[in-house]
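ok so i was messing around last nite and threw this chain in just to see what happens. nothing serious, just curious
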Amino acid sequence: MAQADDNEKLKNATPAKGGEKSLVRNVKSFPMASFLIKGALRPHMVTFFNFARELDDLSDNTDIMPDDKLARLTAMTQVLEGKFSDPDYDASLRMAASLKVTGVSEKHCLNMIDAAKQDVDKSRYENWGELINYCELSAAPIGRYLLDLYGDNKKIYPLADALCNALQIINHIQDCREDYINLDRVYLPQDILNKHGVPLSDLEKDSCTPELRAVLNQCLDMVDELLEHAATLPEEVASKALGVEAAVVLRVAKKLTKGLRKKDPLSGPVMLNRFQYMSAGFRGVFSFPLA
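result:
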């Protein structure tokens, strides 16, 4: 009877339909499903990114109450584990089917669901370590999924983790004003904010104060360290296509960090324009030995 009651609750936890922004927070800096990713693996990669998009839309939807978000995330977990099935959870059903075909563990997707649950309950991070722990759930699973999809060596997980976590934090810095105003989330570590005497209200301003600029620069210093740690990833990846992809993403990440040092994310979006993105892509491709 208890199982039947649980299933009824899950059925009532239907995903929101439309109207939300479509922002794949954890992966939007990746050249998603690029021309380098072809053949039989491409549909599985697209399925994974669609699953991530559904998670992100749910996490950022301000029209859904926290308890309902948690119920929906629980339903997504149950679908992945084969314990629940409902056509309203199409992205999760497709993801579960994809995992069965590829043999990739569901743990990467489950970790991302845990990160989305954390976004419901937690909106502040005391220090860099806490932030990295969050990124290990929200961002690192992306690189690990791709490595597993390609049958690569799990020993290089830490290199992929560093790159994915760096991209996640770059995105946090890009969106620090929007996250605070719209979602009351602050991913900038509180101890760094305190060190520079920055009240959270400074995130609502139209431009960075000198103190907030110092906070962002300190975070970017640590992002640079992550990117340095990830520098050998393209050479370590067994798949040439995935290696080139990693080289491109590294170049894009480095361009973004430089842009965030020069421009003010509170004044407007700090992103690469088409020329800069293509330039980073070409440099990434030609910096990686294909032979």
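not much to say yet. The longest helix spans residues 240-262.
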